[in-house]
Amino acid sequence: MRLTIVGCSGSFPGPDSAASCYLVEAPFEGRTFRMLLDLGSGALGPLQDYIDLRDIDAISLSHLHPDHCFDMSGLYVVRKYHPSGRPPRLPVYAPVGTDWQLSNAYGTTAPNGMTLPFDFREVVDGFETTVGPFTMRAMRTPHPVEAYAIRLECEGRSLVYSGDTGFDPALTRFAAGADVFLCEASFVESADNPPDLHLTGAEAGRIATAADVGRLLLTHIPPWTDRDEVEADLRTEYTGDYRLVRAGDVVQL
């Protein structure tokens, strides 16, 4: 597998990065299969630096906050109106009600919602399926809206993406033994943080240590958050291989 960090800014696009979008690629049936984990605000532009938007094979949306899904509106236009014609419907694995919410965000999708270019497939806690070369699993996480962590496995390698989540010991079991753990770290320990919303660097490190992951990638750090403080928090709980990702980073699994 190859992971490309298309966007990693937390909560909204920052000056150096779009919001959450991660491109995962792997060989499949003589070609490269391309799957997106989230397509947040501002991500559709830089995504075109890496792939043709018509070559996306599947999308997983962890939840329906704008910084994780709102550039689906632009992709809707590409998939429906491109001069070369409409490609096959694109599988979108997402929480219940995704078509309705994204259709309202776009504004003019009656009477078919977004179902002409997209094939929405509902994700629930414990969901498991095959997506091209990947085995995909989902775990519900604590967050103000329905949200999921995603685990992708391919040819003995594994990637776990936390999505947005408050601290949950169950995430340790879900991420156990992952080669790469792509984990949000939006908060810092020095702040008075609300519960069941996001992780601190220390909490991400605690989960990664208990899960014995191969490599920890911290993401979803908001533009107003001090990355050095997030890293310092992380180092109180984690001594393994890690990186605070930036847009454009590429990781081979």
Automatic annotation (TrEMBL):
Domain named Metallo-beta-lactamase: residues: 18-202
Superkingdom of source: Bacteria
Classification via InterPro entries: Metallo-B-lactamas (IPR001279), RibonucZ/Hydroxyglut_hydro (IPR036866)
Keyword Hydrolase recorded: yes
SUPFAM superfamilies per the UniProt record, alphabetical: Metallo-hydrolase/oxidoreductase
UniProt keyword terms in alphabetical order: Hydrolase
Alphabetical list of SMART domains matching this protein: Lactamase_B
TM region positions: none
GO molecular function: 3'-tRNA processing endoribonuclease activity
Protein's recorded name: MBL fold metallo-hydrolase
